[in-house]
């Protein structure tokens, strides 16, 4: 019997520019620039497959100019793509400016393009056939059509008894949407996987452990990603475990949170406890920051 994970989310083209030191305004800044496949939803799917999930499916929307490339890249990563072709909008594009110094911190310039034009008509309940978990990228909540699709998918999953996980995706976009609105849309989700900043923003609490604990009164399981400080697992209003980070020397932090989420979900689906799954998530996050780009290297981990 199939034990599939269905991810619904964004598929984008990442243009990663690695530079050293501050950008020089009004003139040239030397950089190493690469074009890579990305998108939070697609990245999570690829990391879940890389971490051993035998059947990972992805619903996303792309423009005509890049559909063949994205399908090839996803398939090569072990993901079964269900890509809706948008005839009017180009594939979403993100320019990732990565400081190649010690912090490897990154700044995103985002053109969502086709990725947030997923709409209810792109959904079919048949997508859930054989699926034992649905994962939603929080980016879906940041446009009207994809928000409606996310709600439809969540309702369909709940009707079938399929648990649903959600990654809030972006503190910046969350601020624009509004915390109360986001939490209302997330009602019925089983697992929430916020970053430290997202957890604090969603609760108004400055301490990430307090924030994770508070969120776990709203969602049964909260796994808060803490970057270099590991992860927090919270249940029923209390932090149940603090998971240490795996050691890493950062080169590019793009996609580290997606790596965590993908490995966490794959491990959870294999029958492990949330604490064990979070430890695997930390391992994947460490692996992600040591390479350029948001996807795992193809092959054995």
UniProtKB/TrEMBL annotation:
Stretch forming the signal peptide: none
Name the UniProt record assigns to this protein: Sugar kinase
Protein's UniProt keywords contain Ligase: no
GO molecular function ontology, one term from the record: kinase activity
Pfam families: PfkB
Keywords: Kinase, Transferase
Organism from which the protein derives: Streptomyces yaanensis
Transmembrane intervals: none
Domain Carbohydrate kinase PfkB: 5-295
Entry keyword annotation includes Kinase: yes
InterPro entries, alphabetized: Carboh/pur_kinase_PfkB_CS, PfkB_dom, Ribokinase-like
């Amino acid at each position: 019997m199939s034990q599939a994970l269905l991810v619904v989310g964004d598929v984008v083209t990442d243009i990663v520019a690695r530079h050293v030191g501050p950008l020089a305004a009004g003139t040239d800044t030397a950089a190493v620039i690469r074009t890579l496949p990305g998108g939070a939803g697609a990245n999570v799917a690829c990391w879940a497959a890389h971490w051993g999930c035998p059947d990972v499916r992805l619903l996303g929307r792309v423009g005509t100019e890049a559909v063949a490339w994205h399908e090839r890249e996803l398939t090569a990563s072990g993901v079964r793509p269900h890509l809706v072709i948008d005839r009017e909008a180009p594939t979403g594009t993100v320019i990732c400016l990565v400081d190649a110094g010690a912090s490897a911190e990154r700044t995103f310039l985002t053109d969502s393009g086709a990725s947030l034009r997923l709409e209810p008509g792109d959904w079919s309940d048949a997508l859930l056939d054989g699926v034992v978990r649905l994962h939603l990228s929080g980016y879906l909540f940041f446009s009207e059509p994809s928000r409606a699709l996310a709600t439809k998918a969540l309702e369909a999953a709940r009707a079938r008894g399929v648990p649903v996980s959600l990654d809030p995706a972006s503190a910046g976009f969350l601020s624009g949407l509004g915390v109360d609105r986001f939490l209302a849309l997330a009602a019925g989700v089983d697992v929430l996987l916020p970053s430290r900043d997202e957890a604090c923003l969603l609760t108004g609490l400055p301490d990430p452990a307090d924030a994770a604990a508070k969120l776990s009164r709203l969602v049964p399981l909260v796994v808060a990603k803490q970057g270099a400080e590991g992860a927090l697992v919270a249940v029923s209003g209390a932090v149940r475990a603090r998971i240490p980070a795996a050691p890493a020397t950062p080169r590019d932090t793009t996609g580290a949170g997606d790596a965590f989420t993908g490995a966490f979900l794959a491990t959870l689906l294999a029958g492990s406890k949330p604490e064990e799954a979070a430890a695997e998530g930390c391992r994947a996050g460490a692996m992600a920051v040591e390479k350029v780009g948001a996807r795992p290297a193809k092959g054995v981990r």
